[in-house]
Hints:
By secondary structure, this protein is α+β, with helices and mostly antiparallel strands.
Amino acid sequence: MSFTAEVRDELSRCEPTCEYCDLATLAAxxxxxxxxxxxxxxxxxxxxxxxxxxxxxxxxxLTHKILKLRTEFTVRRSVLHKVRxxxxxxxxxxxxxxxxxxxxxxxxxxxxxxxxxxxxxARPCCRLAYIRGALIAGGFVADPRGDFHLEIxxxxxxxxxxxxxxxxxIGVNARVNRRKSTFAVYVKSARDIRALLEAVGARRSVDVxxxxxxxxxxxxxxxxxxxxxxxxxxxxxxxAQHQLELIAxxxxxxxxGTLPRALEDFCALREAYPDLSLRDLGEVSDPPLSKSALYHxxxxxxxxxx
Length: 306
């Protein structure tokens, strides 16, 4: 099971906080993945098609609990993709038009609602329930072992902006991105994704995300130290090569026999240990010398050649 499926399944099992939370969840679910057909004056047909069991389970359960309307449920299996397709249909029937107004799909005059109606998200807990329903219906949460990314695919720019604003009311920075005929309300930072999932009740998924963040932090720290050590070794190797070239130039000019005792000892020591850093070279010296003392001798060699 993908991480997205795990998140959706966990959210579909969350209990409502107040008596109106289930209505908010159902309203978001229908709005995100439902299709409304107008079959005549005042006659409608609502269809929800999904490949996600959590969506089908939530849609059926809340429809029977809140709307008490007749539903048609069909399960089809895709031969090409080898997955199940769930089709939930609310055919034209008495009370469907009132249910669509209640869900915020239609206004009282029968027009389509572009944004999110206030009566559905009047309470703070209902706002969270609406976001939860949108995540169940069209949410995608990337596996936290890779990149951190959460998005909800929706139809309509006004609805996408309204959903992003609703998410912003809980302190999470959500943005909208147009993708051909759809819109994606997305969250990128791990902190905001954690805050959003925690707010809507996906605590088990938050634990998985936190474990992944901790593992990434450890890996990044190890990589940083390894890279720093490699860089130090590269610098040390370059410095040692430079010092050997100085000694070779001293030899070429016939100045080796005129060197002071300290410089001669340094030259002999560097030739004996061509791969050591100055710090390690000082430790094998007899008596031991500090890194700064050896570096001072390198500078004296450079000045001598100048």
